[in-house]
Amino acid sequence: MDRKIYLDNAATTYVSSEVLNEMMPCFNALYGNAGSLHSFGRSAMAIIDKARDRVKEAINANKSTEIYFTSGGTEADNMAILGVAHAYSNKGKHIITSQIEHHAVLNACRELEQEGFEVTYLPVDKHGLVSLPDLLHAIRKDTTLISIMAVNNEVGTIQNVKSIAKIAHDYDIIFHTDAVQAIGQIKIDVQDMEIDLLSISGHKIHGPKGVGALYVKSGIRFDPITFGGNQERGKRSGTENVPGIAGLGKAVELATKNYLITNKKLKNIRDYFLDKLAENVEYYQINGHMHQKSNAILNISFYGIEGESLLMLLDLAGICVSTGSACTSKALEPSHVLKAMNIPEDIAQGSIRFSFGTNISKADVDYVIEELAKAVGKLRAISPIQAGRI
Ligand SMILES: Cc1ncc(COP(=O)(O)O)c(C=O)c1O
Predict the structure, then answer these.
(1) Is the CB of residue 102 below 6 angstroms from any atom belonging to ligand 1?
(2) Which ranges of the chain have pLDDT less than 50?
């Protein structure tokens, strides 16, 4: 069985040929250190400047200098949260985030708690949405930062980012959003949406791994978390990853330019998948908001079975998915996202995340559903729990 179908695009994506073409010269012909004063260095810096302009244009930042390159989404989130919390600690030491953030945000907040900050982790409703009254209620005089993700990586729910940002600003609080799963899925305009800081990752949008960016609106202060040669205007030391940055710039440009076409294709294939699923499989539920959600992510709980076992049977058939029940696919604890959405543990355990790319055809979906129906049937036949009774 050689057939391989990749439905794990929320974990990572392939690097597109346009992005690869942009990166290749940076590995050999243009290998300069962007910090060098000679022509090789200047060429490398010109590549970085071009990528910075591309990111600036894509998210409608005001200036290119509002973009800082990082080693990925995790570092961008860490820089935003630790950086702002530290820079404004004389104003207050209270941060608000949500229970369903990526661990790059949650664990940065835990770190702040160790340092004496207080963090409110807002609950979400059964669709994965943060409630605005809850947010208002959590705001205190000493709140300096609100960090709420734009699109959830496990269930795809899209938060009301613009309204959240507005509330933050009404109370003179800085607003950060993790947009790692949002770029290319929803329109991002940092000025219109009043976003102060925004995190991006390359490898979720057909760019390279190990590179990302943080947008910081000019005027917002943040302390660095790395110390060294003062690259990125002193905010992110370390020799710049020129090939990665070149690739990220191109990937962000393409993802935002093509987002309407991409979304249409993803919606078609996702809806086809759902129709076929309904025809061929019984006893499941879709987790996440039904409408206010990314077209790329489907999180489904199959009653009466273990997500890990289903993942393995699908893998044997060449189909690559993630379990929704594990926060990183190697951790077997129930997902903190599904837990926050109040999904009972036995149902959360049977959850699988299918995340689509535009390279998936209807014939691929037919094959996936056929194998899925077989695998679900097999697992239910040996399961002590009767799916129909849940
Ligand atoms: C929502 C979200 N934030 C942050 C990250 C971390 O990004 P990176 O893998 O580039 O560190 C991810 C990746 O899984 C993510 O999905």
Answers:
(1) yes
(2) 327
Tell me how far the alpha carbon of residue 238 lies from the centroid of ligand 1, in angstroms: 21
List of long-range contacts for 271-274, beta carbons under 8 Å, 24+ apart: 272/362, 272/365, 273/298, 273/354, 273/356, 273/365, 273/368, 273/369, 274/298
Give the closest residue (by CA) to ligand 1 atom 5.
73
282 within domain boundaries: yes
The full length of the chain comes to 390
158-161, long-range: CB < 8 A, 24+ apart: 158/182, 158/186, 158/289, 158/292, 158/293, 158/294, 159/98, 159/129, 159/130, 160/129, 160/130, 160/132, 161/193, 161/195
What CATH number is given to the structural domain containing 346? Answer: 3.90.1150.10
The CB of 208 under 6 Å from ligand 1? The reply is no
pLDDT at 2: 81
How many domains does the chain divide into?
2
Q: CA-to-CA distance for 107 and 25, rounded, in angstroms?
A: 37
Q: How far apart are CA 252 and CA 16, in angstroms?
A: 12
User: Annotated catalytic sites, by residue?
Assistant: 327
Do 233 and 378 fall into the same domain? no
Distance of alpha carbon 304 from alpha carbon 37, whole angstroms: 64
Within a domain: 148: yes
9, 74, 107, 147: residue to mutate for ligand 1 pocket, most atoms within 8 A of CB: 74
pTM for this prediction? 0.96
- Per-residue pLDDT reduced to its tens digit, 136-153: 999 999 999 999 999 999
Structural domain including 236 reads: 17-257
What integer pLDDT is reported at residue 327 of this predicted model? 44
The two structure tokens encoding residue 148: 């709420």
